[in-house]
Amino acid sequence: MESPVAPSLRGRSGDPGLASRLTQLEMNFRRLLACAPTKLEAADKAPAGPGVWVLTDSDLTTYYYVEACQTLRVAIPNLMRSSAARRGESIRPQLADHLGIPESRVAKYLSDHCVVRWLQMDDDAAHFAHFLIAVLHPTLNE
Q1: How many domains does the chain have?
Q2: Is residue 30 assigned to a domain?
Q3: Distance (Å, rounded) from C-alpha 138 to C-alpha 22?
Q4: Neighbours of 38 (CB within 10 A)
Q5: For 52-102, how does the pLDDT look when each residue is reduced to its tens digit (9 = 90+)?
Q6: Is residue 15 a part of any domain in this protein?
Q7: What is d(CA 16, CA 4) in angstroms, rounded to the nearest whole number?
Q8: Reported pTM
Q9: Which residues, in sequence order, are CB contacts of 64 under 8 Å at separation 6+?
Q10: How far apart, in whole angstroms, are the C-alpha atoms of residue 55 and residue 118?
Q11: Domain that includes residue 124, residue range
């Protein structure tokens, strides 16, 4: 009796489409990390278009949150307001819990100790955000 033939993976490593997507993700990742960190108070200077943004500490060592959005100029400043939303939910309680501080002090912490970097992207922002979450493991993204 013949043994079943295992599926071949030989074609995947040479798949130009896959190689191109990986190259694009890596290029965008490097572009994002090269962006100048911006204090949240200055985030209203972000582009009006869609993209991905990352919230980190000002030392750029701790990644707190990654989000894809339709309008960077609106989404990032919303983080400073108590109604900051990701699908209608504020990340403030999660950040307060993570830091061990009262939620009423989160705005000051964000202002004093955090920065954002963004990358404007007309296409694939959601896919890129998923990639960033997988690579960076931001504390508040679950």
Answers
A1: 1
A2: no
A3: 21
A4: 17
A5: 999 999 999 999 999 999 999 999 888 766 544 444 567 889 999 999 999
A6: no
A7: 28
A8: 0.82
A9: 55, 56, 57, 91, 95, 98, 114, 138, 139, 140
A10: 9
A11: 38-136
Helix axes 92-99, 106-113, angle to 10 degrees: 80
Residue with tokens 């707190």: 64
Angle, vertex CA 22, rays to CA 21 and CA 25, nearest 5: 85
Cα–Cα distance for residue pair 47/111, rounded to 1 Å: 20
17-25: average pLDDT? 89
- Tell me if 85 sits within 8 A of 79, measured CB to CB: no
Structural domain includes residue 14: no
Q: What percent of the chain has pLDDT over 90?
A: 67
CATH of the domain at 48: 3.40.1440.10
CA nearest to 112, candidates 57, 66, 43: 57
Tokens of 8: 């071949």
Query: Residue 108 carries which side chain, given as an amino acid letter?
Result: K
126 located within any domain: yes
